[in-house]
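Hi P.,

Sorry for the delay on this. The queue was packed all week, but I finally got your sequence through. Input first:
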Amino acid sequence: MNKRNIIITGGAGFIGSHVVRLFVNKYPDYHIINLDKLTYAGNLANLKDVENKPNYTFVKADICDFEMMLKIFKQYHIDGVIHLAAESHVDRSIRDPFTFARTNVLGTLSLLQAARLTWEYLPEGYEGKHFYHISTDEVYGALELTHPEGKSSDISAHEVYGDEFFKETTKYNPHSPYSASKAGSDHFVRAFHDTYGMPTIVTNCSNNYGPYQFPEKLIPLFINNIRHRKPLPVYGKGENVRDWLYVVDHARAIDVIFHKGKVADTYNIGGFNEWKNIDIIHVIIKTVDRLLGNPEGHSEELITYVMDRMGHDLRYAIDSTKLKNELGWEPSLQFEEGIEKTVQWYLDNQEWMDNITSGAYESYYEDMYKNRLSIWKLLRQILKGW
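Then the structure:
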């Protein structure tokens, strides 16, 4: 196997740590450089099992620091980039769009320019180089909920809630500051291929879940809240639909695409698995209660409907048929099995969860959900008065 020097940005985060672990263990001849700024969602405890491996190096840096990126590319003779570093929570983007534009757009541009100025002046140029950018299905906008009760489909292991699906050819139509920033970064990556000939690949994935996810996201948040008997905040009526992808399967897909994907192409990565939020919540409650030894339905009373998110897209559904047909990838498990593994992991690793849900996170949680709940209750009282 050829020796390679691959930088994985955001490697201490949720998806990134799974990709780092896979590459460090699977490719001992590769030198894996994990570059992470270690913001609130970056946690080196996610990688304790590989931190002493001889082919692993951690570098703390900000992708927006162009001079530092250029130095790192040259110092480590980088020939491959797997770019995962990003601000990724829609709620945070609504509160602070500037940070999302800076990290997701300018940070990506900083990496691209560092790669270009390093690779273009090598004798071999771009030969053997790869810049792989991981993005989101949210750049496509939203799909219509034409079958609100769900219907069976050949494309999904679970019911589907509409006739259309996001394909690689779907036009971009981002609705949130987060998805707009990711769309901007996608365009820059493709532009560097079209303008400079850089070998790039872009993938757009659906909602990920699994071990090591920061608990601002629905599944770990609800597992933790059930454990502590806290309210389970559900936006609106909980009828928004998302496709769900087990993070270990996503890491497998990234591996396959990095090594076998077609340069300048796009691949959608999804779980063939769309669910309404409220149905997911019932599955989580049932699973957590069973594993904790609680009576069935014990935590249903914790469901608390809160004011909906501004501009909340109703349905995402991703079609990964191209990836399956061209590169042979498909999910290894479906949602019920994945959620069982996920819940068990969080219950077995309660110290990890408790360590990251203290301090600043508690303040953020109070502001994000409890204040929203109070406003929602006030509005309901006003409407009842009418």
